[in-house]
Structure formats: structure tokens, C-alpha cells
Amino acid sequence: MPLQRIRHPEFPLEYLLTGYPFSDAATLTNSAGDELAPGTFLDAALWPIGGQARMYLANVNIAHDQITLTIGDPAQPALASGSFPLATPPATLTLLDAYNRPAGLLVSEPVRLAAFAAWAPGDHPFTVDQAEFVSSCCMPTPEVGVRGVLLDDGTFLTDEVWLVGDNGVVLSTTAGSEPLYSPVANVGTAVIRVDVVGDPLYRRALCDPTGLFTTPRFVRALAVSSGPQSFTVKPDAAGNILLSASDAQAVDTVLRVRTAAAGIVIEAVGSGATTLGG
Amino acid sequence: MALTRWFDDNRQRSYPFVTGTVGQPVTSSLTLMRQLPPAVAVDCGFLAGPLSGFVTGSDSVFLKTLSRAGSTLTLTFATTAAYLVGVELTFTRDLATDPDYLTTSGESGAASDDLSSTPDCQLPGLTGFLTTGRLADIAAVVPDSTTLTALSGDALVQPTLLQNLANSWVRDLAVANADRIRATAPAGCPPLSWPFPTGGIIPWAQCLTGDVRFRAGYNTLLSLDTATNAIILGARPGAGAGAPCDDPARFPDEAAAWSLAGSAGPLTGGLWCNEVLRSLNGVPGPDLPILAGAGVSVIPDPAHNQVVIDVNMRDLSTCFNDFSRVSESL
Prior knowledge:
The complex is a heterodimer. Chain A is mainly beta. Helix content of chain A is 6%, strand content 32%. Chain A has helices spanning 11-14, 110-113, 128-131, 202-207, and strands at 43-46, 56-62, 66-72, 80-85, 92-97, 102-107, 122-125, 149-150, 156-157, 159-165, 169-175, 190-196, 222-226, 229-233, 240-241, 255-260, 263-268. In chain A, strands 1-6-5-4-3-2-7 form a 7-stranded antiparallel beta sheet. In chain A, strands 8-9 form a two-stranded antiparallel ribbon. A two-stranded antiparallel ribbon of chain A has the order 11-12. In chain A, a hairpin with a 7-residue loop joins strand 3 (66-72) and strand 4 (80-85). Chain B is mainly β. Chain B has 3 domains: 6-23 and 31-164, no CATH class; 218-251, no CATH class; 283-329, no CATH class. A 4-stranded mixed beta sheet of chain B has the order 5-6-1-8. Chains A and B meet through helix 1, strand 1, strand 5, strand 6 and strand 9 of A and strand 8, strand 9, strand 10, strand 11 and strand 12 of B.
């Protein structure tokens, strides 16, 4: 029977014995003698943000129940990583960076990844020269612009980030018209203004969720009636009304209005107790 | 033997599709997507947009439909991403005039989860390029009036040919405020109403891109920590633009709308400070005891919401025995 040859083998099979997706120069063996057998991975696509040239498999960590593969570049040995259970290796290993952003994937087969189970527990580091990926598997993703907003609690925000003012903080925007002394060009600049003004109805906010707050009925004015005359007195700018004793007809009125610890005392002065006349 | 080249290889094997998901034998006529002849597509690549919901390792891109009408060949790609349901990326070829191995790129519509943004800020859910094979070969293997539709698992694109841009960068900023705490009328008073929706988060501006600057407003301290690349927002009385002289609006035109509604009061619906009696002769509330001294009677009349202050000279010596004649009530 003549030898048969597949003229156009499927893509993964074509490179199965070549070391792909590692480069031709990669030794695939680290200083401890750990060897990445050709065909361990069938394909790879690496696009960690900030990844530079010569990305490589930087480390293989064997734990008692899972295996973690870490990729990096010469500047950052831990750009992204992916883990899989020791007992049930996947066909495709997804790589995530430190902020859980997708950073690529390694294509293999469960039976191929299961070979790592034979490695000793612990770290198995590789150098660039030992496990460099071919450049066609590596997509440069530069660290340009603002890639995320990191909060104190570790929350990492991307895509459309909403800044929301609350609890006495008010945010607003103005299309850029900054003062001339600004060192940055103003054209097209959005300005976000932050005002901290407190909350005049904070007590309602504190009590309303528990139903404790009842809207008070404020005294807004004093209506004064004296015989047929009546008038209304409103508070001044400080919310105060001044009540004083006077008489348009005589400056020596006996009426007194004074404040005491217990409140406002209205009284007349004069001799007491005895009724004169009649 | 002459060496074959990349496109030559690919038009005779599954790539750029996953092995086994295309190129199945055709028995009588081309009816199933999994029978797609490898000659149709020889290379492709895709980007899943930042809001596509694409999960690397789980989701996939696939050739959803292929149709030929006359000399027009239409290929439509789709994904299984959660927010790209119904979002398609279509390529067309004119089998009569287009060149062999033609590469074109395209963009789909926005992801369904992109509705919160303004149209200017929306990004395509799926972007990609497609290189088709030799058009004479395609015309030969895809008869006119052919329409193929993918079933589950058909015509899957190699997973390494897609880059997932989820969470890759800050696309834009949106500024909003939680609605202010609004006053409610006391029991028995007419309810307050606003000429605009209230409550929740109210957007001020969306799709802020390019250079964005922060400005310190009332009582605000802004600083930058270059060591940690942090913007620090702080508050201190009198800082920034100083103490507030007005009540900043929570959304553009809030004050104008409130004014048009006929209100001159604060935007909370409450009262200005000088509209509330807070003290009498400097004695603060909430209780204001009015005490009757000699010669005066203070008579409460709750039924009529009034207090009668009667200067009746009681307990005082007077020249008259008819007290009512000197009594003065307020």
C-alpha cells in the first residue's frame, strides 16, 4: 500500500509537530528540565493590554487541584494567566489579566493539557528564550488613553463610566472654557465641576426610609389682630421676629417684653395688689 | 512539488473555520451550512466590542447565513455573545466583478447593552475582516439561489481569530446626579408637584471623551497624586469656589423648569430660611413659650390657631375699677 499524504492538512494538524504556537527558537525546556512537549498547545491568541514584543509562557504553577499558566513579556512576566482544574482540563484556556480583562486564549485539547499533571507541584518558570510565542499569535494592545478607573475598594471600571453625585455632592459639566492661565488647550475639553453643598433635607433622607420623618408645619408668619386692626409679621433674614413693647402715644408704657430662661415674658409694671378708686 | 501558499492552503481546508464545522460532504445539493465549501472563505478576523458581552472561551463567532442571488454573494456573521443577539456583520461579493482573494472589513451595529450611551459614543458590537477565495471556485460550488443557514455548531470561526475588547478601556464618561431630596407637603397642605420626572439617577451629560478636566466647585478640594496616578476629591468648608451662594441644579435647566412652574422657592420645594419663624426675640424654637407676667394674660386658643395676649392689668393697682376698659388684646 503506497504511503498517503494529506496535501492540505487542517490548520492545527499542520503545525502539530513544529512547536507552534511557540517560536522556532524556543527550547521548550526550562532550566529545571521541565519540557513543553510539541503539540501541548494547538494555537494561541494573546492580546494582554500593555503586552510588548516577545510574549512567552512565563510560568506553570501546579497546585494540588489546579494548574495555572502565566504569560508575560520581558518587561512584565505576569501579564495574564489562566487556570484549569487538574482533573478536568479544558480544550481552550482563557487568559485574564490582573483586572479580569480578557487577555487571550490557548487552544489545546484536554488530553494534551492533562500532561501537566505529571509535573511536580510548585512553580515551573520559563524564560523568553525557552517559551516564546510566535509573533503571529501575539496582538499588540498598547496601553493608550485611560483604560480604567480604579476605586479604593479595588473595583475596576471600564467602558462607559458614570460619575454620580449623591449625598450633598453635585456634579455638572460645562463645555470647556477654562481661564486663559490654564496650561492645557481648551478646545473641545469637557469640564466636570464638583460641588459639595450638603443636603438641606438630610434629616428627611436619614429618617424617611424608616418612616420616622413627618413633614413639620412651620410657623411662617405671625398674624396680629387688635380690635379691627390686623397685620402680618414675617421673619427677618435670620428667621427672627422681634416682639417689643411700645406705645405710639406714650414712651413710658407700662408694658414690658423680656426674655427669660423659660421663654418670653410679657408683663406690665406698676404697683400691685390694691385697686384704687371706686 | 510547488509550495502552496497561505490562501491556497486555506481554500482547501476548514481554516478559518473550526475543523469539522464546514466542508462536510455534499451528497446531492448544497443545503447545509456545515457543507460550506472551504473555498468560500480563506481568512478572517474579528473584534468583539467592549459591550458585546462576549466571553472568551465560551462564546463563538460563526457564519450565520450565506446566500447567492445571481452574481451577488452575501455572507453574514454573528456571535453567541449575550448582547449581540440579532447583531450581524455582513460581507458581500460580486462573483462577476470582484477580484480573487478579496479582503474587506466591516462593522456591525451596536450591542444591545449599549443603549445607555448616546449614539455618538456607541461602538460596533462586532468588527471584522473577511478574505474570500477564488471567485470562480465559489461560483462553481455555490449555485445560484442558494441559501445556507447555520445550525448550532456550524461554521464556527477559529477562536484564536477573535480579539475580545471587553473591559479594555474607558470609552467615555457620563456625569449624573442622584435626585435631590425633595420636600413633601405637611399633612393637610396641597401636595408639591414638579414639572419634570423626579427620583433616581438623572444624567447631566453622556459621551464625554477626549481631554476631560475636573474643576473644584463649592467647598471642594481637588488634588492629583502623581505617584499613584490618583485623582483625589475632597471637601472642606470654603474651599474651591467657596461657600455656595445658590443651590446647584441636579440637571441642566432644573432651575428654569422650576421657575416656569411658578415657584420662586428653593429647588427642594422647601422654604427659604427667612420664610420660617425660627426665633422670637432671639429665643429659638422649636418651642417658644410666651409667659404672662403681672398685668398680662396669655390665653391660648388652639381652635383658632391663635394666642390672645391680654394686657388687662390684673394684679396691678389701677385707677379704674373697670378692668375691661384698659384691657388690650393682641
